[in-house]
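Bumping with the actual sequence this time:
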Amino acid sequence: MEHLQHAVVGLIDHYGYFGLFVGLALGNVGAPIGTELVLPAAGALVATGHLNSLWLTIVVALIGELAGGSVGYAIGRYGGVPLIERYGRYVHITHERLQVVHRFFERWGTFAIFVCRFLPVLRGVAAIAAGIAEMNVALFYLWTFLGSLIFCSLLILLGNALGAHLGDVLPLLHRGAYIALGVAVIVVVAIVAVMRARRPVGAR
């Protein structure tokens, strides 16, 4: 996976926003891109002048996430489990990973899509699982947009802040970035759980 990450960063360096779009789109249909490292790298490319706009970088990353999510949703909805079991191994999509996402759906409903935006590996297969489950399209896009907006923005801003020093701390980002994002997700999930618990029985 490390070689693929370097290839994607090189793609962004050479082709700019188009490379970023392609990398993020592929990462959302199961390709082992490692977006938690690619996004800070994109932010650092802004800081070093290889990309000329921080906010455009965030917008393009978000569009790439939504485009990849759309393809993943369509694959799941119209191809279903048989297609994934036949071809999923080529992009590291396993039946076990889909089952984990399915259990998230059973526990949290459509909100699971938001949660999966912050989880390594699962974020790349969540859209496919949502398509298999025939999740409401509007809710799928709502949670994908909100989760991806937070995820992409924070990691790109982090990479931009580190700038030319990103290479010195890149090995730590895989854990550190997810710790920070994980705390944010836990807070959001806790708030939703408390709100659900306080609802009157008849309102559930």
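The tokens above came from a reply further down the thread. Residues 54-87 form the longest helix (34 residues).
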